[in-house]
Automatic annotation (TrEMBL):
The keyword Nucleotide-binding belongs to this UniProt entry's keyword annotation: no
Region (Disordered): 17-42
Listed name of the protein: rRNA adenine N(6)-methyltransferase
Taxonomy, superkingdom: Eukaryota
First-level EC class: transferase
Length: 368
């Protein structure tokens, strides 16, 4: 598990202090330098209130603290020319800070038509200039389309994702982002995504950062650590009063760095080759249905073996069906030779990686 505080360097102590102050404050003032765009400049210090009532079914809580919005934007490390996707912009209280950054383009994905209307009204000049694109709809259903649109337009890809979304979709959101954005940097035609800056319920963050052998440890931290090659950073805790209406739970911001440090990648010391999210997730999904059992027990299930047989047959259409069952069972046993008594709940993501390689060496795969 690689979890590092984002403000690790001594020289960054001032920033850490500012972020903590922002996260616990409800002050509506902000000292961010003014943008050349007058609309953005005026909005940096004023949080838009939005509709009189929030949609409880969508779990809406608008971020209202400009200092916190500025701190989140700074943490993202937006560079000139970047394309940034913002998930759950609401009325644009975080959007305005992203637009004031060096980002070339911002894609704001919002489900509530009322919020979309407010975004289009508030940022009409930026939309007209092509700096902001507002996408209406469910992120989980629309994100694939957004990625395809960027590729079809011949753009370099999505550099960063910033999210303040309803907490009930936290797990699906993380899986969707990893599925779409965790690409092999060496094979990617476009520039790969650098990082995800995500706000979640504190309890979910505890699960995300859980270490092997602890009660919260599960599939989620294994996947995030496997594809967060540059480490997971706990940014700050966020108090309830930073939102309107205040949620019933505390929140926190984390940053998942999808790329390994440049010097490690250049030296070939990232420690593992790339496999697709679907393949690695296929393995992890099977074992965490029974995480306190041994690996051998997890793969003794008839339903699991039948699924692996089906995948094997799809990958080997010329295989003799009558022989597949015995062949797959023997291959699974061979792959597990060094993992028989190991329990998933006690293993770091590196062990799952080694196990996946053992399966591959014996011709067993978890996706087609």
């Amino acid at each position: 598990m690689t979890v590092t505080p984002i403000w690790g360097a001594a020289a960054a102590k001032t920033k850490k202090k500012a972020a903590k102050k922002a996260a616990t404050s409800t002050d509506s003032t902000d000292t961010t330098s003014s943008s050349t765009n007058s609309t953005i400049s005026r909005s940096l210090t004023t949080a838009a209130a939005g509709p009189a009532t929030m949609n409880k079914d969508l779990g809406q809580h608008l971020l209202k603290n400009p200092q916190l919005a500025a701190a989140i934007t700074a943490v993202a490390g937006i560079a000139a020319g970047d394309t940034v996707v913002e998930i759950g912009p609401g009325t644009g209280n975080l959007t305005v800070h992203i637009l004031a950054s060096p980002a070339a383009r911002v894609i704001a994905m919002e489900m509530d038509p009322r919020m979309v209307h407010e975004l289009e009204r508030r940022f009409a000049p930026e939309i007209a200039a092509g700096r902001l694109r507002v996408v209406e709809g469910d992120f989980l259903k629309k994100f694939d389309e957004v990625v395809r649109h960027e590729q079809a337009a011949g753009r370099h890809g999505i550099d960063l994702v910033i999210s303040n979304t309803p907490y009930q979709i936290s797990s699906p959101l993380v899986y969707k982002l990893l599925e779409q954005l965790a690409v092999d940097p060496a094979a990617a035609r476009e520039r790969p995504t650098r990082a995800l800056v995500l706000m979640f319920q504190q309890e979910f963050v505890d699960r995300l950062l859980a270490a092997p052998g602890t009660p919260h440890y599960g599939k989620l931290p294994v996947l995030v650590n496997q594809y967060g090659c540059g480490g997971i950073e706990y940014v700050c805790k966020v108090g309830k009063n930073n939102f309107r209406p205040p949620p019933k739970v505390e929140s926190a911001v984390v940053k998942v760095n999808l790329l390994a440090p440049a010097e490690a990648a250049a030296a070939g010391t990232t420690g593992r080759e790339f496999v697709s999210f679907a393949e690695f997730d296929g393995l992890v999904r099977h074992v965490f249905t029974r995480k306190n059992k041994t690996f051998a027990s997890c793969f003794s299930s008839k339903s699991v073996l039948r699924e692996l047989e089906a995948i094997y047959n799809r990958r080997h259409p010329d295989a003799v069906a009558a022989e597949t069952s015995a062949l797959v069972k023997a291959a699974v046993e061979a792959a597990l030779a060094n993992f028989v008594d190991v329990r998933p709940s006690k293993c770091g993501h590196e062990v799952f990686w080694d196990l996946l390689l053992a399966f591959h060496a014996n011709g067993i795969y978890f996706s087609t």
